[in-house]
Design goal:
- This protein is of the alpha+beta class.
- It has helices at 8-18, 32-35, 41-53, 73-79, 84-92, 108-115, 136-140, 154-160, 177-184, 218-227, 249-263, and strands at residues 25-30, 58-62, 120-121, 129-133, 164-168, 190-199, 202-211, 234-239, 242-248.
- It has a domain at 8-65 and 107-188 and 216-263.
- It is built from eleven helices and nine strands.
- It has a seven-stranded mixed β-sheet with strand order 3-4-2-1-5-9-8. A two-stranded antiparallel sheet has the order 6-7.
Amino acid sequence: MTEHLLSGDDVAAHVSELGVKRGGVLLVHASMRSMGKVEGGARTVAATLSRVLGPQGTLVVPSFTPENSDTSRPYLERVRGLDAEAREAVRARMPPYGRDSPAPSMGRLSETVRLAAGAERSDHPQTSFSALGAAAGKLTAGHRPDCHLGEDSPLALLYESDAQILLLGTDYSTCTAFHLAEYRVPDPPRRSYRCVVTAHGRPQWWEYEDVDLDDSDFGALGRDFERSGHDTAVRSGRVGRAQSRLIRFTAAVDFAVGWLVDHRPARSGSASRTPGP
């Protein structure tokens, strides 16, 4: 049996039925593979989401680059079992971050938005966001390089904008909005991060301190959020074959703050778990 080829109109109908707001701000985490076959692929999906949002709307995606950090989870997994010389060789090949740096681990839709004409990108060397639409410049401005996902990042501006989150074939483990809640709990634990950037035209390693990010329990957090009685905060449905959720950003973050306080014991360090970005 031949699989149905999704058109842009099919995608538009599905996300509109979920409740994507025309003129609104939409943060998307997407698995293109989960949707099935789409005519035109990620370009069609990006263009369709922008069309549904309309000329006053804004589409936002993560453009994270853990590939340039030796404190990131991908790096630690890559060098596990290597000796010191081999680890140093991996570090030496790491490209410095630039505004044009690719974000391959974020998926095809995110890369399509990042590369679109008129897209804006925030300045963080590890956890930047790309945006396309009316508020793209505003939402990506002022991303402080020592603040991954907190009050000086696009996530705080998305919260103020009453944004929606679309988990398009992904689960709550990808929901970056929950990271903003990590900054809003009392006295969050902190740790050091390190990445390679460009300074004075040359690659340079830069170390900084920020909140100790941990997405290992976001699946449980998301399930409890759905069970919490926030009936209007989450809408579920399919976009193509992809089981998807449309979530109110503010409701997710506000719930997550209380949940993290109740469910995470005070941590004195991060040595017992795999680091985040």
